[in-house]
Every structure is written in structure tokens, then in C-alpha cells.
Hints:
The chain is an alpha+beta fold. The chain contains eight helices and seven strands, in the order H-H-H-H-E-H-E-E-H-E-E-H-H-E-E.
Amino acid sequence: MLRGRSIGITLAVVAVVTVAATLAGVVAITIEMIIDGHPKNVVLTVVAIAGLVGLGVALVVARRLVKVSRGLVAAVEAVSPSQDFVPPPGRLPAELDTISKALEQAYRRLREGRERERALEGARRELVAWVSHDLRTPLAGMRAMVEALEDGVVQDPATVTRYHNQIRLEVDRLSHMVDDLFELSRIHAGALRLTPRPIGLGDLVADVLAGVEALAGAKGVRLAAEAEPVLPVYADAAELGRALRNLVINAIRHTPEDGTVVVRAVAADDAVRLSVADCCGGIPEDDLPRVFEVAFRGEAARSPGPDRGAGLGLAIARGIVEAHEGAIAVVNEGAGCRFEISLPVSGPALADPI
Ligand SMILES: Nc1ncnc2c1ncn2[C@@H]1O[C@H](COP(=O)(O)OP(=O)(O)OP(=O)(O)O)[C@@H](O)[C@H]1O
Ligand SMILES: [Mg+2]
């Protein structure tokens, strides 16, 4: 009957049984004394019986408690690193049941943590393989061009200029990539330190658009902003600007000539939303959940050419937004897709800014 009950209740029952047995004895003594007048033997017998009953109950209870706690220890020892905790069979006393549930939860969290770590490790390995390929290929191309220039194999001025331009472009692209990789490694290592301040979202949008105006102009893409200049948000202006710039550059890259990219900043109840809508014609449904993965590139961005991406921009944007305790998402909408950043109005906790 005491299975599954609290240890406190069990101990109380042991005490009550002992007291009840003694009380019953006292009643019996009183009656016996009145009937035959041999109180000494009766008292001794009754006390002995009461003591034995109490001892018996205590022994049964103690054995059971020892058994179930050993069962719990055995269950903990039996857990392998990749498994969840399996509680011992049968009902446990309430306190041990609470411990067992806490253990179950702790082991589940440990397993999830280990799985996350394994996935991260896999992604890191993939990234290293990808980086060595993506850095080596343009470096080999540049080396060939430099050698051709050095040896005088290429002499006509037009080709020489073309080679110089090409080398310059590749150097820019590579240094941009190394910079992105550095940012990403800081994000992954949890070393991204934010210095959040109240900033006007409208100003942030204007700054980012001013920075990409030349790029949009060269592609013939129109830029439009719909943001109140003073819409306040508590954020790290440089980092959030970087995330937004990555979205806007993507939008410009994937929007055909004469298309428009619209950047909006609106305040909702408990969040502010920053969105970038373009005319890319929509991202394939299969790619939608993967665009924020490190090194993911769509078909067009994989082929060599000026639009060739490194696949880091959105992973960085997500890292920065999540460091701000916000969220980033993408949907296909109208003539293209819309990336949306939402940030809590209260802003990220001011965790140890340097
Ligand atoms: N606005 C967009 N329209 C259509 N496709 C997009 C858009 N933004 C991102 N994508 C797709 O998501 C992929 C990943 O984007 P991400 O910014 O991470 O990498 P990237 O632009 O290829 O390279 P990087 O930003 O490192 O130069 C892109 O290759 C592209 O296929
Ligand atoms: Mg990009």
C-alpha cells in the first residue's frame, strides 16, 4: 500500500504503527490487570510485541527503500552515452520518482546537446572542405594569371588590363570571404559580443541602402525604403546593419534588371520587423528551409561567375539576429521572396558587452 507514496508518509506510518501497537498494549494491560492481577508479565509481553511489530514494519519499509534506491542507481549506471535514461520498473516512492524524472530530463538534454555538437562538428568539417576548395580554385586562377603576366606570355594591353581587373576582383572576393568566415567563426564560438544601444531603424535602413546604391545602380535594380526614421530598436547597429546588408545584397543579386527591392521596417505589438522583398521569382520550395545553412548556395550561386556566392551571408545574418534574441525567416511572396527579421522590442539582454 505504501508503494509510490512519499518517504515522509512511509516513515509516519512506521511511527503510527509502533504507537498504535503500544496503545493497544496499554489498553490490553489495563483490562488484564483488572481481570487477573499479573501486571508485570503482561506489561513485558505487550511492550515486547509492540516493539517487534514496529521493528517488523520498519524492516519491511527499510528493505523496500534500499531496494528501490539501488534500482535507481543501477538504472543510472546502465545509461549509455547515446541513450535516454530508462527509470527502474515498478512504482517509486514520490521523492525518488521526482529524482528519476529529473534524471530523465537531464539525460535527454545531455543527449540533445551531444547530437547538436555532432551536427555542428559535421557542419564544421564540411565547411573546412568547402573553404579549402573555394579558396584554392580562385587562388590557382590568380596564380596562373600572375605567372602569365610575369613571363610576358600576355602582352597585348587589353588582356593585361583584363587580367589585372580579374585579379583585383578575385582578391576583393577572397578578402570578403575571409572576413565572412571570421565573423561566422565568432558567431559559432559564441564570441560575438554585442554592444546594444537604442538605434533608429529608419536610419539603419537608410545607411544600408546608401552602402549598396552603387551595386543596385550597376544592376539596374530600384531600391525603396518604407521605414519611419525614428522607429527605435535596441540593437548593435554595426552587426544588425551587416545582417540587413547581407539580405539586401542577396535581393539585388537575385532581382532582374528593372526590378525593385523594398526594405520595410514596421513596429508590431511586442516586436519590430525588418523585411526585404525582392523580385527573384521565388526560391525553390526545397531550398527554402536550407537557405540559412552554412555554405548552402542555390543553383545559380554555385556556378562560376560574378554572381557566385560563398553561401555565408544568410548564415551570418541568422547568427547575428539570434544573438539579438530575434528570429529570421523567408517566404515566397508576389514576384519574389521576402526575408523578415523580427526583433524583440526590449532588445537582447545586455550580456557582458566589452
Ligand atoms: N533574395 C534572394 N532571392 C533568391 N534566392 C536567394 C535570396 N537570398 C538568398 N538566396 C539563396 O540562398 C542562398 C544562400 O544565400 P547566402 O546569402 O547565404 O549565400 P550567397 O549569397 O550565395 O553567398 P554570400 O552571401 O556568402 O556571398 C543563395 O545562394 C541563393 O540561392
Ligand atoms: Mg548572400
